[in-house]
């Protein structure tokens, strides 16, 4: 043993425990020493487990944050209602100058709705959501009559989706911008970005879902279709 200790550069007092000459005291002291060492080992194991648990939790939190960030930029997360007293819908097709102006002017009081093949929606989401920290727009598959694209917006039966009149009535206010900004300066009669059929399909679905999913149906409904007089309708 001394040879081994010398090779390790240790003395016997550093690794060996000296007990008393009384057998009962030796046994009691040995048991106490064993329990102390055992508790020390258990404490080290628990500390390691807790550290590992915290690391796993941090990884999961980071993963959830990345997933939320992606959903926010994709327009797949329902906007919150805290601090919102009024809100209206604006269907923008794939791109809409009017809608971009409305986001800047009305902020979270307007919910822009874009088609999933829109190249502008992620740019707008990043610009107006503080780089994807909260949702500011909604994305539909392109089939505006698909009710499953709209139902997630109405999971909260007390969600704020109406405008209020001076008399306190609730108005479901919906607009659709059919103007094609890419063809605004083109000659001839360019096609609308959003067809009247698509616009009115979205109007009908929103009206139906608001009437069936929200606690309070709207008192009145307003539908606005925006189009360029030089474009085909």
The share of residues in helices is 40-55%
CATH topology call of the largest domain: Rossmann fold
CATH class descriptor of the largest domain = Alpha Beta
Helix count, per DSSP?
6
Strand content: 5-15%
Structural domain count: 2
Alpha-beta content class: alpha/beta
Rg over CA atoms: 33 Å
Sheet of most strands: 6 strands, mixed
What is the typical, i.e. mean, pLDDT? 83
Q: How many β strands by DSSP?
A: 6
Task: Describe the oligomeric state of these chains in a short phrase.
Answer: single chain
Shape: elongated
The low-confidence runs, each spanning 5 or more residues with pLDDT under 50, are 184-189
CATH architecture of the largest domain: 3-Layer(aba) Sandwich
Instruction: Provide the succession of SSEs.
Output: HHHEHEHEEEHE
The CA-CA distance between the termini, in Å, is: 98 Å
InterPro entries: DUF6739 (IPR046627)
Pfam families: DUF6739 (PF20524)
């Amino acid at each position: 043993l001394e040879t081994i200790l010398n090779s390790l550069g240790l003395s016997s007092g550093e690794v060996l425990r000296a007990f008393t000459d009384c057998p009962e005291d030796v046994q009691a002291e040995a048991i106490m020493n064993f329990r102390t060492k055992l508790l020390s080992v258990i404490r080290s194991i628990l500390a390691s487990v807790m550290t590992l648990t915290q690391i796993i939790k941090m990884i999961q939190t980071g993963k959830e944050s990345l997933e939320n960030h992606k959903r926010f930029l994709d327009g797949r997360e329902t906007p919150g209602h805290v601090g919102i007293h009024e809100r209206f819908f604006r269907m923008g097709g794939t791109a809409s100058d009017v809608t971009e102006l409305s986001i800047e002017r009305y902020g979270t009081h307007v919910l822009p709705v874009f088609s999933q093949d829109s190249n502008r929606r992620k740019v707008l989401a990043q610009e107006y959501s503080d780089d994807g920290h909260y949702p500011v727009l909604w994305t539909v598959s392109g089939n505006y009559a698909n009710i499953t694209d709209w139902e997630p917006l109405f999971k909260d039966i007390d969600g704020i989706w109406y405008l209020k009149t001076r008399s306190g009535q609730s108005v479901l206010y919906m607009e659709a911008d059919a103007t094609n900004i890419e063809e605004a300066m083109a000659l001839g009669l360019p096609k609308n970005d959003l067809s009247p059929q698509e616009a009115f399909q979205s109007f009908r679905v929103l009206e139906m879902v608001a009437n069936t999913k929200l606690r309070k149906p709207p008192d009145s409904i307003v539908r606005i279709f925006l189009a360029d007089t030089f474009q085909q309708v």
